[in-house]
Design goal:
30% helix; 195 residues; six-stranded mixed sheet; globular; alpha/beta; 4 helices; single chain; 6 strands; Rossmann fold
Length: 195
């Protein structure tokens, strides 16, 4: 992966957590189909679009393939004049057979550097794929501004890496649904919460 302190390529990333999901049963939806945005979630993304509009123009809009991220990207696309591109590497954390179960059934912590359980994706794996995507974006959209709609854990794992904070900060990291973070990768790394 590229070292942001030595590479001359710069990009500004706008990481958006998808909006609130309609999940009346309160299950872990993970990669399961059929979990789209709630009305509140659509409102959250409308608010994110307003915030993002003040930071454009943008070179590209990427989104995780999962329904909640695709719906969020679709709501961002029109007001920002962008066409969403599906990106597998910014997908939600893999959780295997924990999908469809209750949140309290997950090990605590459920994300660890090496993996808390054989079916749970490790922080190392999440970080590697997310940063690999960011490196490609830096080369493809040099000097540009890029939006990515992803999920809580992948975004936080990447932000912790970029800010030099340990994984122990993950559970309390402030990243509500619909939140937007700006990450400037331009010789040094600057991270700002926009919402």
């Amino acid at each position: 992966m590229l070292d942001p302190t030595s590479d001359k390529t710069s990009v500004t990333l706008y990481l958006v957590r998808h909006g609130e999901v309609h999940n009346p049963a309160g299950v872990i939806y993970g990669h399961l189909p059929g979990f789209g945005l709630s009305e509140r979630g659509r409102g959250q993304i409308a608010g994110a679009a307003e915030v993002l509009a003040t930071h454009g123009p943008f070179s590209a809009l990427y989104a995780s393939p999962l329904q909640r991220a695709q719906e969020s990207a679709g709501l961002l696309a029109e007001p920002l004049g962008l066409l969403p591109v599906t990106e597998q590497e910014i997908i939600e954390t893999g959780i295997g057979s924990f999908q469809g179960r209750r949140f309290e059934e997950l090990p605590r912590p459920y994300i660890t550097e090496e993996g808390a359980h054989p079916e749970l994706e490790s922080a190392a794996s999440i970080r590697m794929r997310f940063l690999r995507w960011a490196d490609r974006v830096r080369m493809r959209h040099a000097g540009g501004r890029v939006i990515a709609v992803s999920h809580r854990d992948p975004i936080i794992v990447a932000l912790l890496y970029w800010t030099g904070v340990g994984l122990e900060a993950l559970p309390d990291f402030p990243l509500e649904t619909g939140a937007v973070y700006e990450v400037c990768l331009d010789g040094e790394i600057r991270v700002s919460a926009l919402t």
